[in-house]
Amino acid sequence: xxxxxxxGIQSVADEERTVPxxxxxxxxxxxxxxxxxxxxxxxxxxxxxxxxxxxxxxxxSVLLRLIVGLEVPDSGFVRMxxxxxxxxxxxxxxxxxxxxxxxxQHAALYDSLTVEQNVAFPLQHHASGMxxxxxxxxxxxxxxxxxxxGHQGKMPSDIxxxxxxxxxxxxxxxxxxxxxxxxxxxxxxxxxxxxxxxxLVLKLQSEHHMASIVVTHDLHSAKTIADRLILxxxxxxxxxxxxxxxxxxxxxxxxxxxxxSQESVCPERQG
Length: 271
Hints:
Elements: H1 2-18, E1 22-31, E2 34-44, E3 49-54, H2 60-67, E4 75-80, E5 83-84, H3 90-97, E6 100-103, H4 115-126, H5 132-145, H6 161-172, E7 179-183, H7 191-208, E8 211-215, H8 219-225, E9 228-233, E10 236-241, H9 243-247, H10 252-264
Parallel strand pairs: 3-8, 3-9, 6-7, 7-8
Antiparallel strand pairs: 1-2, 1-4, 4-5, 9-10
Helix pairs in contact: 4-5, 4-6, 5-6
């Protein structure tokens, strides 16, 4: 009997490892007559980072909004750990969202709150069982982890764009998510700050072992932090694979996208 029980536990654990943390299956999404996503499919496992590339208006940010449940697909499925999020009750969807960290394109910090208060915000609203002292300890630990220790009392207007992104990452990690979504994490940053954010994302991924999707125009960043990349065009996945596989593609759009992306990268970001 004990052996049977142990086998059962092992099979459940194996199943959890094989089910993707995020699965998007043949998703279509239109706004009026504009088709934004046209049969997009992808899957990301825990500990893996997928970069989503594409020109402006190809549905990259809409894809993130669908994954977190802020938009609903016209058809197809979005699954978190095997569970279809469409049609869930607000309470259940809220539980799932609490395990998803989201870094917005412009950090989206609350201007009227200090750095410490911004990071504490999710804990105060979604971790009511945690004591105030425990919340303060977690906020201090997260700020130190992203290189913002000692800046707790500053306002967002008092720190640089790169520092705001760091605070945004700390806030995204506050509820200890197992999924991390990053919308243009290096947008608007100078080359040095961009490289620092890349290094930070790699460090956090190594330490927290999350399933991550990063939407970015920064090809160097995508190459640095992602295990796999997909390229969208006209709402469809043109190619999926490693950066080397994209480089070796003979697809005309892929070659043109890589060429123009590399030409637009600052010299400090090339290599």
